[in-house]
Amino acid sequence: MNFKSIITQLYFLLIYSDGKVNQGEISLGKKMIQSEGISEVEFSLQMEALKTKDTAQIYKESLAELKRLKKEQQIRCIAWLCVLANSDGFMDRAEWQFIYKIYHKELHLELDIIMESQKELNKKITLNNSVPVPTTLLDQPWSRAGNR
User: Which residue among 23, 30, 37, 82 is least enclosed by CB atoms within 10 Å?
Assistant: First the structure.
């Protein structure tokens, strides 16, 4: 599994961790796939496939693969999760627990490094706000709030 597949799986787990998918998570998810060079079609296909799997198994596989990534890629994944979790202006408790468990308990990453990467991603997103984002992702069944 590669970085793009792992970050997609983590995105899936995060947006469903609090039981509700919001528009901010969808919008920032689109920016994430653009920023990371992930094919919109592949992303949508993977999101649909993930809906048919057990989330505990997805988590187990994602974590195992995440541990194989370089530290910089691990940090980037966690930073994206933080950005996405804050998309509605508030990080839900379930989202925070999910992120904390991965970065602190499993990967033993430093929060300061993650926060620095998160700031860089936020700047990149802010700078790229004028860039049109494909709207076809909004038409995907997985993107509908509460779908699960």
Answer: 37
In a domain, 138, yes or no: no
Residues 62, 63, 64, 66, Cα dihedral to 10°: 80
Torsion, Cα 133 139 142 146, to 10 degrees, reads 100
Q: Both ends of the chain: CA-CA distance in Å?
A: 24
Domain tally, the chain: 1
Report pTM.
Answer: 0.84
List C-alpha distances in Å: 53 to 48, 77, 86: 10, 21, 26
User: Distance between CA atoms of 69 and 20, rounded to whole angstroms?
Assistant: 29
Residue type, 75: I
Q: Which of 4, 123, 112, 122 is nearest to 66 (CA)?
A: 4
